[in-house]
Design a protein that fits this description.
Layout lengths: L2 E5 L2 E4 L4 E8 L8 E6 L6 E6 L5 E3 L7 E6 L4 E6 L8 E9 L4 E5 L3 E6 L1
Parallel strand pairs: 2-11
Antiparallel strand pairs: 1-3, 3-8, 4-5, 4-9, 5-6, 7-8, 9-10, 9-11
Length: 118
Amino acid sequence: QVQLVESGGGLVQAGGSLRLSCRASGITFSQYDMGWFRQAPGKEREFVAAIKYEGIRYYADSVKGRFTISRDNGVNSVYLQMNSLKPEDTAIYYCATIIITTRQGRSWGQGTQVSVVS
């Protein structure tokens, strides 16, 4: 049974930065592709970024150049460094195992709130 636990969300001013973390258990983490998704109020959940087990990265156009996804297989964790945050980045951010070819999440964490204010 996979368990994903996100942390690092909070309230930040526009232009600021946050770093989200997700620790996994119940899987052989190094064999899984991982991703971050987000869901803003009144909107559907959307893909943000993904990283393959060997380190290849993918990003949504809306966050390219601002967000960086990384992973540390030694501690079963995936991270999302978010810089130059905008109010439209406000959402609940979810960590998930992912099918990268279709950008579909499979197993999900409970999410962490990111709020960006101007």
